[in-house]
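Title: [Solved] Altronate dehydratase 3D structure

Original question kept below for reference.
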Amino acid sequence: MVRFEQIGVLPESGDNVAIASRRLDAGTEVELDGTTVTLPHTVLEGHRFVVAPVRAQEALTSWNTAFARASRDLVPGDYVCTPTSLAAVTARGVDGLPDEPSATNEPLDPFELDESALNFGAQVTSVEQPGTFLGYPREQGPAGTRNHVVLLATSSRSSGFVTELARRFSHSAAGDGVVPVAHTEGGEDDVPNNLHFLLATLGGFALNPNVGAVLIVDTEGDVVSGEAIRDFLSENGYPSIKVPHAYFIRSAGFEHDLTTAGALIEPWLPIVDAQPRVEVPLADLKIALQCGGSDAFSGISANPLAGQVSAEVIRHGGTAVLAETDELIGAEPYVLTNVRDLATAKRFLATIKSFKERVGWHGHTAEGNPSGGNVYRGLYNIVLKSIGAARKLPREVRLDHVIDYGEPLPGWDGVGPEAGRSGGYIFMDSPGNDLESVAGQIGSGCNLIFFTTGNGSITNFPFVPTLKFVTTSARYERLHAEMDVDAGKYLTGTSMADLTAETFDLVVRVASGEKSAGERAGHSQVSIWRNWKQTGPREGISISTDGRMARQLADLPAEDRDAPLDGLPHSGLTSDGRTIAELLTVDNRQVPEAVGLILPTSLCSGQIALRIAAQAELEKWAGDAVTRMVALPHTEGCGSSGGASEETFARIMLGYLLHPNTRMALLLEHGCEKTHNDYFRARLVEAGADPARFGWASIQADGGLDAVAGKVNDWFSSFDLPAPVEQPGDLGALTIGLEARGPFPAQTAEALALIGREIVGSGGSVVLSSRGALLADDGFRTAAFGSADAVGPTVAHGQRLAAPGWHVMRMPGTDWMETATGFGATGVQQILAHVAGGTVSAQRFVPVVEFSSDPGTVSTYGDDLDAVATGDAAEQARIGLDTIATVAGRRLVPKAVASGNIGFQITRGLLGTSM
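Solution (posted by the thread starter after getting help):
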């Protein structure tokens, strides 16, 4: 027998369901309101059970808000489970579960505003004597909590450059350090649909109070350029950048440009380093409110605590910014409990409507937002998740303003140090993807982040400190080195008032320079609201009157869905040539290298995977069994829509796990993502692979960064595999991607065809992009396939080949790095790219060999080329083949790889969108 208070939490008086504070096995007896209730089924920690009788079809409530409807008459003790939540728990092998769900999700009907019910109250009362913190005053507005030199890539094309440039200044004395802002956006040939958000966010980064100096870097021909940012700021009334800054256009070799850009930065370092912290008003604090890896207790402990601390900041004149639009759908009545005026209420609802429409264009609804970790930890649906997320807005705090993604905070005009001190509570439009949402808040001017988490999300931003609030003490103890605030103390008796005062003191200390847990860990990443492909309703996707999707995706063309193809090659031309290469014999196959792969299952474990792989490489965790260790950080797996885009993502991930060059592979989950380790176990089984071949580790479940690194080390070190043996082979053992960027002459087109003909003729495979310049060239098609007729895809994006030969990979866009990533997933072991007018970045896993026959490119970018193609088509083909063989034989490291100009980026296809 246990008392209810020992095992359950009632969100609010009047609710008819409670949250289990620990796992309750079937048969547990609970003393509830003077009676004994026997639980008929297992109820996991964070899941809900009935505490008052509920008739069939009546509402089940938390925080007095309906989140589901009873499927049958329910009595106290019954386990509340929806089809989705029951499936998620069943998949984890939990015993004692019911055979059928007991509830259905509350429909996402459009919220009807009752203007008469709105409360236009006053903002929370100001303190008698506003406080201060030690910050960095800025001429253009609020003070900074940090003082960084920021290297800002305008598009993904410059991301490798700013990352490498920052690395070379990583030990320089420069205030709080030199940091890169590398991201995935703006790298396609066309104007992206998210252009306004991109320019607003990047411009806002440059003006953020935590930036002590900024270098804005683009590449010649970028759609999203430094000039575009400068024009956007001017045209939209932004202030000028007052800190040391410069615009740098990459226009020569990588090393040359690194030296030139470095010379611009060096004079700024002592200036930034010499700037002291001084006492500034707490009104200068601009708090970004975020939640990630949420659980059932997020709305009980961490989110209310973040809200109360934010209210204290507002009392001192500061600002708090709530975001994540889709994670407030279903919580509209709560958010509008207290609002500045009718116009603000209407703009908030218009923002939600707009978000629903954009998601709907891609075939999705907000119900696709909750991740597998959310559901497993008790957030059955978007309504429950939204109500919990909205608790970051205390009922007594007024919603003052609604702004667009990356829009400057109200009252900030950049004129004098008093600018932006209007304070208050703001809502900013953004997706539920944590990192994409944070980027918008930083672009708006936030200088400190409150990040609440149930599972223990490990995430940080490069130049704005993150304070992480974890919902339960048990999770805090497990991840104490990565967490800042134990909000779980509220569940074990500490009053909210005492916890607020304690946390507010920590906030002031961190704002004044004390390092947060994330800063001590030394990792960070940036993801801006990713481009979406659809700009209006699509035939085959319709939106019903209540805002839900009527999905008819099967009626869409296969290319829109990126549906798999048969994987069989085209009948192209071949030749009898044989180019010898010194390959490796590994596990009875010939390959150019044997890779140890650490594959993050989502964006949030990406940077950790990168750090662990670097350590594993340095310390040779796998001994001589592998030739190198690789990690593939990316932006997917959580905070993005499911359906077609998820299928493409999963296909790409499996492509690298099963790649012929992968000898050992471990999957590293964050722990709360949609595509966790169990998800990929099932995917591997579907693909006919044995999950026991792979390693599995979890940042959250294994206890944080140090613990998970130890587990990864143990797995790679547990094998005693023989070293690969070098033996002669030929290029027929390989799969090669052929690409051309920029113009090329007829003889080069023929040369590339000749290269492909030899590789295919000797038993290998060649993969081309359906959107690439080669297939668009009549001369190449004729030389490769014997006809100038159009050639269609043989494989979907990232689909593995069913048989060797000539292949075309479907490509939904023109982004180079997404093309290279797709190539690798098909099984491509090396990419030969002819470049003109500039060079391309290398791919982390697949070597990219760059050669050119263009004299202008050779003279300007010669230091970045791996080979110069001269002579007629046959001579150019011989140069290309010999270079492929030299790289495959590990006698040549491609220039882009050697210089650090590398990346990895997964496409979202035509139907993927941020959520």
